[in-house]
Design a protein that fits this description.
Elements lengths: L3 H7 L10 E2 L3 E5 L10 E5 L11 H22 L3 E5 L9 E7 L10 H4 L1 H6 L7 H17 L1
Antiparallel strand pairs: 1-2, 2-3, 3-5, 4-5
Helix pairs in contact: 2-5
The structure holds zinc ion.
The site of zinc ion has 5 residues, from helix 1.
Length: 148
């Protein structure tokens, strides 16, 4: 079985900014370029697990606390008005949860579900987010995640 997220987790596929957090159950990383938003992070299962319905008891018990910890760090690192949370698994069937800052004002005017389309629009070259801004937010996220 070839799975992009399994390759990211085992280090055979590079993750821009690296693996920001790893434990026995979870891995956290930032979305790769082209960047749609600074601070669009991913929380993914360490083991290959297609979706939340297949979580082990340990994954199910720790998902909420881990998501809360990460999203607090995203909020503090970005100053976003809200953090959107979503998991679809259409491109890669390995559980991963998008943690997406909803800035005020909304970049590109994208609100709600449109925010998730920013990835495609950035890839099409409609706009771009500076890598230096992503680096700054990743550093701030890491400082807050490790502090709390
Ligand atoms: Zn996998």
């Amino acid at each position: 079985m070839d799975c992009l997220i399994c390759r990211i987790n085992d280090g055979s596929e590079p993750a821009p900014h690296g693996l920001l957090y790893c434990d026995d159950l979870w891995v956290v990383r930032h979305m790769p370029p082209p960047y749609a938003l600074a601070g669009w992070f991913i929380l993914q299962t360490r083991r290959h697990c297609p979706e939340l319905a297949e979580f082990t008891d340990a994954e199910a018990a720790s998902f909420g606390p881990m998501l809360r910890r990460c999203e607090r760090a995203v909020r503090e690192a970005t100053g976003a008005a809200r953090i959107y949370t979503g998991s679809l698994g259409e491109k890669v069937r390995h559980f991963h949860c998008h943690m997406v800052p909803r800035y005020e004002p909304a970049p590109q005017g994208a609100l709600g579900w449109e925010t998730f389309g920013l990835e495609r629009r950035a890839a099409a070259g409609e706009f771009h987010v500076e890598a230096a801004e992503v680096d700054r937010v990743v550093r701030a996220f890491m400082a807050r995640l490790t502090a709390g």
